[in-house]
Each structure stands twice: as structure tokens, then as C-alpha cells.
Amino acid sequence: MRRPIQKEDAHQINDKIRAKELRLVGENVEPGIYSTEKALELAEQQELDLVVISDKQDLYIARIMDYKKFLFEQKKKQKELKAKQVKVVVKEIRFGPQTDEHDYEFKKKHAEKFLEEGSKLKTYVFFKGRSIIFKDQGEILLLKLAQELEHVGKVDQLPKLEGKRMIMMMSPKKVAK
Length: 177
Prior knowledge:
It is built from four helices and eight strands, in the order ββαββαβαβαββ.
């Protein structure tokens, strides 16, 4: 006996199939064109559901299967795909155009740690007020940082002035396993 499916489903199943004839495929059934009533009888004999898997053509394609198990496996596959996706984390480090050596070293260590963790790095020099006249110092500072961190990361975007900020993007180098 077929189990009733409560919620609105993405597929046409059992009594919700609107076609008069459909192409039946799958295991435990002779592939071919059947009337919907005959296909429903076959599904009922096997105590499974009749599910339309493609309604893009003139003739619907249906399969006899356990619909709840099918939905469960679909959710499981989607969960696995989601788990395999890599989430990109962007960490920011801010400098002034005249950052002294100690602060620079301190921030460089943090930047190195971020890149080793696998995060992207957005470093920028912020120019306040009239300090925009030191934009060449800001660029030198960012290029120096890029050169000193080239063993853990690579530069995605060279220093570029955007408003009162000079921004440089870096991403971690892929570690060979």
C-alpha cells in the first residue's frame, strides 16, 4: 500500500500525476510506455510510490521507488556538498602611512598567522587628513609586507588607492600534501 505524502512535494507522485500515459523506467519493472493507472497498480503491488522524474518532454518519465528514501538521500547529498564547500574568511590589518617598526612587526606576525590559517588577508594603509601626501610611503609599506610574507601567501591585488585607503589583497599559498 502506498504511503500518503503530506507536504507539497517538488515531484508529482502517485495520485497527483496529471498525465494519461508515461514512460516507466527503473528496477523491478519492464521499461516502456504505460497508462498512469497501470503504472500506479505496479507501484502499489511493490508497495512503493510512482514518481515523475522528468516532465520536460511530451511524455512524462516516471520511476517506481520509495519516495521518502529518495528525499532522504537527496538531502544527504546536499548536506555533503555543503560540507565540502570552503568558506572564505577575510581578515583585515590596518596600517598608518608612518607606522613604526615595532607596530609593523607586530601586525606582520598577525598577518602571517592569518595566512597560515588559510584566511585571505586585506591589508590597507589609512590616510587621515593631510597624511595623503605620504601615499608613496603607504605603498612601500604594503609592498614590503607582501615581500616578507611571500613564503606563506601570494598577492591577489597590488596596492591600489581607493579614497583614503590604499588596499592590498593577499591569499594563502596552497600547501602541498
